[in-house]
């Protein structure tokens, strides 16, 4: 396999990934569980709100790790 084929496949993968992320942003209002999982930290005060999506980050990490593992196994 030539280096140009490798670069082409990588660009196609990143393009599909960007399309997937864009679709998630478009559907963000309809995905109520996304960003409100157990483990997400929300601290609300009078003039301050702190939000740290720990549970969502862990879930996304697991999903992306699984996808990349499936792509890279040969």
Q: What does this entry look like structurally?
A:
A hairpin with a 4-residue loop joins strand 1 (41-44) and strand 2. The mean pLDDT is 83. This protein starts with a helix and ends with a helix. It has helices at residues 3-26, 54-72, and strands at residues 41-44, 49-52. The chain is 58% helix and 11% strand. With 74 residues, the protein is mainly α. The chain contains 2 helices and 2 strands; from the N terminus they run αββα. The longest helix is centred in the N-terminal third of the chain and has 24 residues, at 3-26.
How many β-strand stretches? 2
The structural domain count equals 2
Task: Return residue spans where pLDDT drops below 50 for at least 5 consecutive residues.
Answer: none
Biggest sheet details: 2 strands, antiparallel
Q: Per the principal axes of the C-alpha atoms, what is the gross shape?
A: elongated
**Relative helix content:** 55-70%
- Please trace the helix and strand order, writing H or E for each element: HEEH
Brief summary:
With 74 residues, this protein is mostly helical. The chain has helices spanning 3-26, 54-72, and strands at 41-44, 49-52.
Write the layout of secondary structure elements.
Layout: H1 3-26, E1 41-44, E2 49-52, H2 54-72
Antiparallel strand pairs: 1-2
């Amino acid at each position: 396999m030539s280096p140009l084929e490798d670069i082409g496949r990588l660009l196609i993968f990143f393009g599909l990934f960007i399309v997937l992320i864009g679709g998630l942003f478009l559907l963000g209002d309809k995905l109520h569980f996304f960003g409100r999982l157990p483990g997400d930290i929300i601290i609300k005060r009078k003039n301050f709100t702190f939000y740290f999506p720990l549970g969502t980050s862990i879930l996304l990490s697991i999903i992306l790790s699984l996808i990349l593992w499936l792509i890279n196994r040969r």
